[in-house]
Amino acid sequence: MGEPFEPVLLRNAGVADSRSIHTYRARGGYKALRKALEMGPEAIIAEVREANLRGRGGAGFPAGVKWGFLPPDRKVTYLCVNADEAEPCTFNNRVLIEQDPHQLIEGMLIAGLATRTTTAYVYLRVEYHEPFHILQKAVDEAYAAGLLGRNILGSDFSMECIIHRGAGAYVCGEETGLIESIEGKRGWPRIKPPFPAISGLFGKPTVVNNVETLCCLPHIIERGAEWFGSIGTPGSAGPKLYCVSGHVKRPGCYEAPLGLAVRELIEDEQFAQGMRDGRRIKAVNPGGFSVGWLTADELDMKMDFDDPRDYGLLGLGTAAIVVMDDQTDMREVLLNVTRFFAHESCGQCTQCREGTEWMYKVASRLAAGAGRSEDLDLLAEITQTMGMMPGLSICGLSDGAAYAVRSIATKFRAEFKEHIRRQTPGRAEQVMRQTNPALYDRAMGRQTQSAG
Amino acid sequence: MAWKTIDRTQSAIPPDAAPLLSDAVKQKIRSFVERYETARAAMLPALHVVQDTLGHLSPQAQKEIAEVLGLHPSEVFDAVGFYSHFWTKPRGRKVIVVCRSLSCSLLGGEQVLEAFKEHLGIDEHQTTADGEYSLMTEECLGQCEDAPCVLIGEKKHCHVRPEDVPRILADPNNDKVDVARSDLYDGVTPDAQPGGAREG
Amino acid sequence: MATITIDGQEVECRDGVTVLRAALEAGWDVPHYCYHPGMSVVASCRLCLMEMMMPNPQTGEMGWAPKLFPSCQTPVRNGMVVRFDSPKVHAAREQAMEYFLLNHPLDCPVCDQAGECWLQDYSLRFGRGYGRMLEAKHVNPKKNIGPRTLLYQDRCVLCSRCVRFCAEISGTRELCIVNRGHRCEIDVFEGIALDNKLQGNVVDICPVGALLDKDFLMQQRVWELQSAKSICPVCSAGCNIRIDHNRGRVWRLKPRYNDRVNDWWMCDDGRFGYKFIHDPRRLTRPQARRGNRLEPIAWRDVPEVVRFRLMQAVQQHSGQRTAVVLSPMMSCEEAWLLATLIRKAAPEAHLVLGHVPLTGDDEHFPVGCEPGNAKFTIRAEKCPNRRGVERVLKAAGGPTMDFQQFVSQATAGELSAAWVVGGYSNDWVTDELAAAAEKLTWLAVQDFFPSKLCEKADLVLPACSWAEREGSFVNHAGLLQAFDRAVQPPDGAQIDGQYLFELAGLVGVYSGGRVREMMASQDAGFAEVVEATPEPAFAH
User: A21 φ, ψ to 5°?
Assistant: First the structure.
């Protein structure tokens, strides 16, 4: 990349006292809100649609289109801000809240104007303690300044903002799981239809938007849809926060246009500055576990909403890049990934509830040096029936878990097979019989026949 | 019958038990109800406040929360069991949460977890004998750029190596953050007067 | 009415139903666990998946969508084309069965549900026959969750039917789900047991052997049971039930679906109210007084003895001083036979509606609902056939009086001869009644158990429980419902219907249908028997 990108979302990050309303206003904040108040809901929605702002939470659904699903005759509208951010290795929402909370509040207000929101709930994961205190203080400042509550800035637009802290469940980042959690129940995602826009929180029309998506709104309103569209690629407009972590020299949250190549984000001086300890890249997960894995020779993939599909990935996801070096044991990676999904599956749908735990058990065995080559086929089949066939579950966790495991097991199959080949003969059978004595009369497969 | 059965028809709550929730705590829970359309939606805030006040959410605490919110205790029990953050048995004064995400794991997070287990002498979801520390893990703490991470109380410790563990444990302020705090979700101290949560 | 196509066949279905319901009603045995027609849809078991034709987003052409849809949450739309018979659906079902059985203990040899278990049925139909997980299974505890129900958590498939029942039907909310993912369990809050009057229904709706009825636990294998269609006799609701019996014993009662009466449910009072049938204290032999003692007489002598003694009593004391108490526990046919035989012998005799037990008020469920919105009601009137007996009395004509009048007149000495039918399963004879009986010169008692009344009787005839008779009851809403016989009466006793039939001068074997035909000539309503609602055999 040539010129360093002029930060948009992170323009106040690192500035002294960036969290306070005074600093935010002094640096041009809340001007977009005034403009939006004059524009009115239809104009705001039109602008956002034209800017082609696609959701940054993982699904990439156009925000303007989502707002359009709300029934026109509604009396109450809720805006739920998804600040659950429990996807592993993703932390851009945290950075936005910590560094520039008023940007989020202004984004919420603009979205609230567009959708006639009466109350906005920010669902913030409980592990974000400091961000909670920071955001609550900013919300208090906004109320004091007449920017939240009744008759905002003297207009007839009123909106409440309430922070609702989560309690440690990844599935509450799913929009209907989030809604159920706010309602005080277990975060079990709802069946759709009805969609949240029709019947969401407390049965009322509801919009769920990601933090980063909302932070784009003040800039779109202030500088226009055309400017927003000029950043990034056609179909993937605007700036994006990329979280780079893993075995890189400089992990961090970097802002750049959508459409950058993965390699650039890993190796460029402006971003992660290449690999630590002189190691080479073996594997990259470029958007959250569910989108899939890239091998070292697939790093020219562009980080936008469409290119990942050409590399066998589900999509852009959260655009969080985790880099694994050539000393990484992919069995440990598989173990980590399967453990995550087994721990976070909500338990409603049969195949997710049972399948995620089963995959974790198989991955544990592989990592313990007790795998069989049939296990790779077994994993492929479990993933096929868990989520490759769409429509099998109520929410996307099952599909995501299946895709993640399938991607790792397929792209790194050679490595898994090599580990199995190098196992102590008979060890697989030994470990399995120790774990489950009921297998005493079960055939173990070809491996034991050759060992015996 | 040879089956071993847990008897759920009997309660361990003594019939003459003194109430666990003070009037001040109940008042704080009720003040959350105004922020939502239903009383049930105050469940998570109520559970946070009570866990912070009492240390954990015992069956008696759950029952009393149900009374305040007008719910059946099974509904509170249902919610408590679902979320990782809530403890139903006593926990230490400070909770150490070690991150197990892929980023932290790649940079040695598992060894940090082992170091904590060794120094504290406890396993996950256990508490030290002096009641000071409890240990648990979480799937991702969202501080991956500073992996490996450990959360103690409200404070995130970054770039933690196994050899840092004794120093971290020895620091009396290892759970304090230095931003201005909101007490909205805090527990209520025993001598507090009934008063609402700060609106906003 | 909408017309949809399922597996290539056109099906007419009611408006507003889901594809699953339409398919079940049309004869497709679509597997499902979480769906129940009486409760909300959760679509969590993922067994009822189907393929649906949808327009291609690019070309607009209709084709099979790549996605599978849960048929329980898809409403029918005229012209819809779906299929269950396809490789994709079969593969999904086969795999779903493997997942369900992944952590299942596979303990059919000791499980009550064997023979009526949906895991067994579906595995047989489309399961794979083996599981491929080599690791140890996750083990759950067994829990005592209530005085009458046991939870064997290992077998649970988390369909959440029981939880929804307690939330939506009984309204008592005892059951909940705890934990997350594969560690999910059904549980109650400690000390607040599953203990409401409808709790037995959760065992019915549990598709597997997770929720177990302690009363039936390990008593019988279900394939050894025979079933009889019956009507519950405990209150005037008239819930349609099924009596499961084997070798002359009743082992359990289950509800039958009737959308005009009890839907899919029955209460615990009815469900467990059959124990008296096998009480050894029951009267089984007819007895006649000779001198100071009651002596057994042979069944074949009963008609002679009864007619002789009855005619003697009537002639001695005049018909006006004779009363016959027809218990509201009797079936319509028995009441009619007795009324007919009395009217023939003594046209001026008084026919009396027996004591109607009333306990409290009607109980409406879900708890706290408006009576008009109740999903189930337990009636305060604890007898099944007050209305039926009233109708018989009306049809029979002639002098009648109510039970309180009978007791007062008997006490005052204004009555000489009486035939009192009991048939209550509890101790119903009050001191007042016993004292009144003292004043009678001639008393016949037809009852279950020996009582103070029997001690004063000149003639004792054993009554049989409803499970041993066939007949009909009229419930609180005026619906005439027929019930079949399940078991034989103990000790060779004859059922009331049979000896009343003979006493009434009729020849042959008593049958409820035959008698109702005769009754219909007096009251046409007795020809209209309300049947249970037909339901797909595999609906739930």
Answer: -65, -30
Spacing of C-alpha A27 from chain mean position: 29
Helix (H, G, I), strand (E, B) or coil at C148: coil
Q: Is the pLDDT of residue A384 over 90?
A: no
Beta bridge partner(s), residue C462: C447
Rounded distance, CA A317 to CA A258, Å? Answer: 12
Interface contact flag, C42 A169, Cβ < 8 Å: no
**How remote is the C-alpha of A372 from its chain's centroid?**
33
Which structure tokens are listed for A108? 């919420």
Q: What is the CATH number of domain A330-443?
A: 1.20.1440.230
Q: Do A436 and C46 touch (CB under 8 A)?
A: no
Q: Is the pLDDT of residue B45 over 80?
A: yes
Left, alpha or beta for A88 (phi > 0: left; psi -120 to 50: alpha)? beta
What pLDDT sits at residue A444?
52
Q: Chain C contact for A392, CB < 8 A?
A: yes
Measured between CB atoms, does A138 come within 8 Å of chain B?
Answer: no
Contacting residues of A for C41, CB less than 8 Å apart:
191
Query: In the 8-state DSSP scheme, what is residue B181?
Result: P
pLDDT at C537: 63
First-to-last alpha carbon distance for chain A, in angstroms, is 59
Whether residue B146 is predicted with pLDDT greater than 50 in this model: the reply is yes
pLDDT-derived band at A402, boundaries 50, 70, 90: very high
Nearest to A183 among B38, B81, B153 (CB): B38
Q: Please indicate if any CB of chain B lies within 8 Å of the CB of A404.
A: no
Token reading at A125: 């994961």
How far, CA to CA in Å, does A158 sit from each of A43, A120, A122, A182, B76?
18, 11, 17, 21, 33
Class of domain A21-229: alpha beta
Give the closest of C92, C138, C183 to A392, CB-based. Answer: C92
Regarding beta strands C350-353 and C400-402, do their DSSP bridges make them parallel or antiparallel, or are they unpaired?
Answer: parallel
Residues of chain C where predicted confidence (pLDDT) is lower than 50: none
The beta-carbon neighbor of C99 closest among A343, A350, A391 is A350
DSSP state of C277: G
Q: From the candidates B136, B140, B146, B175, which should be mutated to test the interface with A, based on the most A CB atoms within 10 A?
A: B140
Facing B200 at nearest CB: one of A86, A143, A202? A143
C247 Rama class: left (phi>0) / alpha (psi -120 to 50) / beta: left
* Interface contact C189-B77, CB threshold 8 A: yes
Rounded to two decimals, the ipTM of the complex is 0.94
Owner of token pair 């509450």: A172
Q: Is domain A235-325 given the CATH code 3.30.70.60 in the classification? A: no
Q: Is A169 on the interface with C (CB under 8 A)?
A: yes
Q: Which residue has the tokens 């029934």?
A: A71
Closest CA–CA distance from residue C173 to any residue of chain A (Å): 14
Q: What is the pLDDT of residue A2?
A: 58
Range list of H helices, A155-251: 175-182, 211-223, 225-230
Q: Which candidate, A123, A93, A57, places its Cα nearest to that of A288?
A: A57
Look at B145 and A253 and tell me if their CB atoms are within 8 Å. Answer: yes
Residue B171, both tokens: 């620091």
- Please name the residue ranges forming H helices in C266-353: 268-271, 302-317, 332-345
Asked if B4 reaches chain C (Cβ–Cβ under 8 Å), the answer is yes
> Can you give the pLDDT at residue B194?
58
Domain spans in chain A, listed from the N-terminal domain onward: 21-229, 235-325, 330-443
Burial class (CB in 10 A: 0-12, 13-18, 19+), B135: buried
Q: Distances from the Cα of A17 to the Cαs of A99, B156, C10, C510, in angstroms?
A: 9, 21, 70, 97
Is A167 an interface residue toward C (CB < 8 Å)? no
Predicted confidence band of residue A439 (pLDDT cuts 50, 70, 90) = low
Can you list the domains of chain B with their CATH numbers? Answer: 19-82 (1.10.10), 94-170 (3.40.30.10)
Q: Does C146 touch chain B (CB under 8 A)?
A: yes
